[in-house]
Write a structure and sequence with these properties.
The structure is a homodimer of 342-residue chains. By secondary structure, the first copy, chain A, is α/β, with parallel strands linked by helices. Chain A is built from 11 helices and 17 strands. Chains A, B: Pfam families: OCD_Mu_crystall (PF02423).
Chain lengths: 342, 342
């Protein structure tokens, strides 16, 4: 039988264990996997595009477990009552190829994206960073805020969204949790004085939500909204003014903010920083930019963590996903046993 | 909610409706999809190889529905009590990216592979074909036999397998269904006098289960076992002696029997024959070879067919795979509603 964590169980588990604890624990799994980056099978995700959205498969393997995520991105979904992003994921045993674990990943992706952002910011943001600006207060925003509090102690947020309802929603969710939130009058206003800027907007278009003159020296920019060909958030001049860090270069060149730059534009893969092979931030004045698009290894870590964390709990069920004939060469026996013909 | 056909329901449905009827109906869906071949998003499947097996994702889309299959291939699995191939698949709505249908595909893949073989043979085998030789009597063999009976009226089988237990298993399953079966003394013996030869062996290696001198004029060769880089069944001389038909050339050049041939070795894609754009069999003496590896559109057709066929029946359940917050931008509300913090 295959273990399955559905939405109901995932939400109950997250609420009970606490999103901040989950994000902190997930970062441990992620750092473990990023440290053995070279050991993984890696490929850019496989995307099927339409003019209004994308569906992607994101596989990877560490030669013990294989994992993949199904994820969509449809920026116009919320106006029709659907979420921009939904996802589910699977782990399998590489040794026999059998799927072992299935989980909803709409909630889990929000947690893993937040964990990735915080994992990277912990290494790249200026020590003593206190204030985070957040441009975009959609589905992912509360998870981002909790991740930065859990990991860097960020309590003070300056926010902006073009949708007033999204701002109101964010305030309603986040203020009871003890954050100090200021709503800016614009994106430009919101980022003033911030140590960290998180951009998390969703428009399948070339957008410029921030221009280079707004990015003050020493800022760490956590850019997670630009993640598809033709979908960017930042003025290219911002990328020229800082050091750019990425997950998996071949994928980010196609999907990330750096799709706007020449193909030899210099970037550093984050795993190299984690291992000490390449420098991270080199001065307090440097602008560091995490051009994040989301990579399969992050989902692999998230799935691995949830699989381990729910073992022995009531937060999963077993589903009958893989046929199991007594004789492995006699698949037909399953049908014959029930067949009027057999 | 997402509809889910698990193994239990799939087997009950197949046994009740009957595998031959299912294969015939599935071929209708497949031909419909092969006729609009050019309309599909197509890419070679995405494979993660180890020395002992492969795990693959096979996506495609007709711009209304998106589908993919997860499938493994581990030829040494049966000796350890596991099946060589297991699979599951998903359909999603391209317009919002939400997954709508999940199904076991271990049983379904055996049916779809058999349906594909029979769909192709119906167009390419010599009219009046009466006898089929089957080399390899593993998991797929009974489904192949039923498909060829349902589609071409084949009643007479000549079989061979290196594993006597697999032969005994095949006889036990197939004889009660009214086939006339002769067990050969070797592969060479079994193919003598056959109109159609189905090769369905599984070894992750270059094997030569048939040599060119054994292939008589007019034979249709349904070669389904060679489907991975380094995994072939046929003497390359066989390919030179006939006309080779494939599913999706870019994938078959890497995975099929033609991986043994130069990259410009001429092949015909089957959809072109179906549309009448290219010739199929041109004479009763011609040897036609279907170098089948399995392509995503076949799984898409199979999933589409099962989805439609089980609608309104009790052969599926609904699972809670996709989060559904009241406000699509308020994913966090799902957690907050249950959280001690919220």
């Amino acid at each position: 039988m295959t273990r399955f964590v559905d939405v109901h169980n995932m939400v109950r588990w997250v609420a009970g264990r606490g999103p901040e604890r989950i994000i902190s624990e997930m970062i441990e799994y992620m750092e473990e996997d990023f440290r053995r980056w070279e050991h993984f099978d890696k490929c850019p995700r496989v995307a099927s595009h339409t003019p209004f959205g994308v569906i992607e498969l994101m596989p990877t393997s560490d030669h013990e477990s294989y994992g993949f995520k199904y994820v969509n991105g449809h920026p116009s979904n919320p106006s029709r009552g659907f979420q921009t992003v939904t996802a589910f994921g699977v782990l399998a045993d590489v040794h026999n190829g059998y799927p072992t674990f299935l989980a909803e990943m709409t909630v889990l992706t929000a947690l893993r994206t937040a964990a990735t952002s915080a994992m990277v910011a912990r290494r790249l943001a200026r020590p003593g960073s206190r204030v985070m600006a957040m441009i975009g207060t959609g589905s992912q925003s509360e998870f981002q805020a909790l991740a930065f509090r859990a990991t860097l102690g960020i309590q003070e947020l300056r926010i902006w969204d073009t949708d007033p309802a999204a701002i109101a929603k964010f305030l309603r969710n986040i203020e009871p949790m003890g954050f100090d939130v200021t709503v800016g009058s614009s994106a430009a206003d919101a980022v003033q004085g911030a140590d960290i800027i998180t951009t998390c907007t969703a428009d399948k278009a070339r957008a410029t939500i921030l221009s280079a003159d707004l990015i003050e020296p020493g800022v760490h920019l956590n850019a997670i909204g630009g993640d598809c060909p033709g979908k960017t958030e930042l003025d290219p001049a911002i990328l020229l003014g800082g050091e750019v860090f990425v997950e998996f270069t071949p994928q980010t060149r196609v999907e990330g903010e750096i799709q706007q730059m020449p193909t030899d534009f210099p970037v550093t893969e984050f795993w190299e920083v984690l291992l000490g092979a390449r420098p991270g931030r080199t001065s307090p004045e440097q602008i560091t930019i995490f051009d994040s698009v989301g990579f399969a290894i992050e989902d692999f870590s998230a799935l691995r963590y949830v699989r381990d964390a729910v073992a022995g709990t009531a937060f999963f069920e077993e589903i009958d996903l893989v046929a199991n004939p007594d004789d492995p060469k006699d698949l037909f026996a399953l049908v014959a046993a029930l067949s009027p013909v057999g």
